[in-house]
Amino acid sequence: MLVNKLRQRLGSLLKKNTKTVSRRKILQYLLTASGAATLLPNLSFGAQKMNSSSVKVTSGIDSTLRADLLLSEGNVITLDKASRISEAVAIRGSKIVAVGKTAELEARIPPDTPRINLQGRTLLPGFFDTHPHMDREGLKTRGGESLVGANSVSAIIERVAEAAIKAKPGEWIVFMPMGAPPFDYVNNPNMLKEGRYPNRDDLDSAAPDNPVFIRGVWGWWSRPPFPAVANSEAMRRCDITAATTDPYNIEIVRDRSGSPTGVFLESNRTSLLEYTLFRNAPRFTYEDRLESVRLSSKIYSSLGTTSAYEAHGLTPELLRAYREIDERGELSVRMSAPLSLPSSSMNRSRLTDLMDEWAPSAGGREMTSDNFRVSGVSLDHGNPKSATLIARDYPYVQWSGNFDQGITDSEFIEIGIEAAKRKLRLNFLIPTIPPYHSVDKSLDMLEQINKQAPIRDLRCVGFHLINASPQQLRRVRDLGLIVTMTPSFFYSHAAELHLGEDSCPMREVLDAGIPLTLGTDNVPPSMFFTAWEALVRWDEVGQRHLGTSGLEREDVLRLCCQSPHYINWEEDSRGVIAPGMAAELMVFDDNPLTCDIDLLPQLTPAMTMIDGRIVHDVGLSTNAGG
Predict the structure, then answer these.
(1) Is 193 left (phi over 0), alpha (psi -120 to 50) or beta?
(2) Which domains does the chain have, with CATH numbers?
(3) Predicted structure pTM score
């Protein structure tokens, strides 16, 4: 198997000299292998204890333990309140019916019950990613021809020439951004061998009869500037000439005569290039969205993610795509998401009507289908300049998946009150990123909403918290908010976000009695990378550790596997390996509590299970037998 070969190769490198293997190389192996009390009533932070001595069985089961599957001879990290380690788990239907020692469970299960011998592998509750932007992972396969591995202008020209041979005369040829995910998209000409970006003449030489467009990245996949390139025919079709003015935060690179060279440099995190200069270029279709959800679901399952929550919200089109893939039985991650409100595209009356339409399905607490639910609404008071440009093309959202919102503080309060009256959970940004976002401003607005329509029992979600004082944390707690953090920001965005030793105060949030969860932000999509960053706080750009987390590995596992279920009001039924709990599990060859800490990002599951159904398997289940 490819995964085993990669592990063997990485293992041999590490045996030679662990310190010489870069973290970036580990991530490349990972992505190749994957295919691309006050807090919570169920949580208990502490060391896992060896060994669960007694079999625990749900009530009503006789001496013969009826089960559909027995997982045995494993290292079962239960994450229960006593932090017990066990050996075997029996599953019937979607639930766990027993946890205990292998011999004790084997003695009570009929001989024809299917079994999987874990052979010492580690069994954990599945990951719950509370900021995945999951559909974007699949969308990367739908955004055009790949330029991964094309590390020079000449190599890019070769790719363009190859694509031109396959294309019809006059047909658009669109490429994904230069470079490779998750951290190596090109944002500096020196990243290419020739020390420059390709230009219109380069692309013209390879495809004179076709419009060619190399897309720019989604802004949080890289660091500005974000280059895009077009040939002469593409610019002609988009009416880009020497007289064209530069759009907001986009530079049209020009030669000495003032003519566009075909290179465009953008600094907007939410790209505006395809909403301004390149509105005539091919756009993502509903079929692209649909396929992106299907592919992304498989990729995230292959990394151990079993549940997810899209705090930014999703557009109605993307919600429809998730529902359709779920109805096909192909959604292998339990997904919850708020409705992203098109607040910059609709007046207040239309927006209120929209919330009325969605309130019956988005205001409840239960999953509306096996693996999918809509939960509340998402609001943002971001940059009105970019939001206004994007709103012209409503409902198109390019890479984003959610609507860009640039409403005022008063509008945020007004819409928030109307949402809360309809029992719609609020989801909102809560970082301090001038000039539009600050913790105090967010809390001020929420407190105003709470006076008119109580939100404490709605379990509202504030995402991307970066810094917070003790006083601010008390206000967060008093509003009953759930906080999500993205530790991967440390890795590639520490300087831009001004992250320091006090940033992402996970220990302080927990000590304040605030429900805390973690998310990947899709950079990369591995929750073990997120867990590793939560522990080591590594700034790859600055080559430094930014303080200490004050957390143990088990603490972080609980933040990744257990505490997020509070978002879905499922903290009493998921996130713990115990009788009566959902069989939402993942199996790993290595033990994340004891392995070398810098190997955490490399860990990928041998098997992933949702509600007793195996959704990812690298051959482990083939050993099942009666």
Answers:
(1) alpha
(2) 2-34 (no CATH), 35-126+575-626 (2.30.40.10), 143-275 (no CATH), 286-574 (3.20.20.140)
(3) 0.91
